[in-house]
Amino acid sequence: MRTRAYIALGSNLEQPELQLQRAVDEIDSLPCITLAGCSKLYQSDPVGPPGQPDYCNAVIAVDTTLTPIALLDAMQSVENDHGRVRSERWGPRTLDLDILLYGNEVVESERLTIPHYQMHLRNFVLLPLMDIAPELVLPNGRSIKMLAAKTDDVGLSIIAGSYPWQ
Ligand code: ROI
To answer: Is 166 within a domain?
Structure first.
C-alpha cells in the first residue's frame, strides 16, 4: 500500500541550497519512494541557539510503500550521506530531514513522533506545506490552512520558485 508522507528539509551549512536540491533528487531516486510534490525554496532565520547561519527550508510530499520506521531509516541514511553530524541540540546542520506526516497515522515511539511535535509552531514548515498541500488536515482535525493563518512570515523569504530550484 502506498502512503502519502510529508518531509521537511533544512540545512544551514555547506551550501544549504545545494544540500536541499541534492537531497530531493536523492530521495526521488530511492526505491519505494516517489516524489509527489515540492515546495518553493525558503531562507529562514535560525530557531535555536543564536550565532548560526540562516537556514534553507523546504517541504516535499512523497508516496511510499515504506513503513514509518523504514522511511525514517531511509531519511537518516540520506542525512548521513550529507555528512550530518549529530552534536549540539538545535545546532547547525548540513541536512535535516524530518518526517512531518505519514498518511493520517499517529506514531509515538522512542525514535519517531508523527505528526512532528513542533510542526504547528514553525513558519518554515507551515508556509512551504501550504505551497503543496493547502487542503491538508492533521490527524487531530486541525487544518494546515488554520495553523498557517495563525503564524507569520517573519524571518522567512522565498529564494526559488518551483522545483528543480537550480
Ligand atoms: N531553524 C530554521 N530556521 N530552520 C530549520 O530547519 C531549523 N531546524 C532546526 C533548528 C535547529 C531547531 N532550527 C531551525 O532543527
So the answer is: no
